[in-house]
Amino acid sequence: MSSGPGAASIRNRAHWRDKWNEIIFGSDTPAGRFFDIVLLALIFLSVLSVVLESVRSIHEAHRSYFRTAEWIFTFIFTLEYAARLISARNAKQ
Hints:
This protein has one domain (5-87).
């Protein structure tokens, strides 16, 4: 087994990826369940925002809110997707 500054960095990176893999892909841990619940709540809020935006009077009254919400949800879901790609152990996950 190699030792040195580079080896420690590789082990730390692997540990980080394993921890995030457990949180993102595992729902049998408290952190995994929390991640799933937060993600479901964000999906619900995103869908609710789209539904409310489809009502003309609500859209006209809160146009800037919907534009901001769309960007925030897009940013959060992009981060979540990137975290899934980075922490996946293989392509089938």
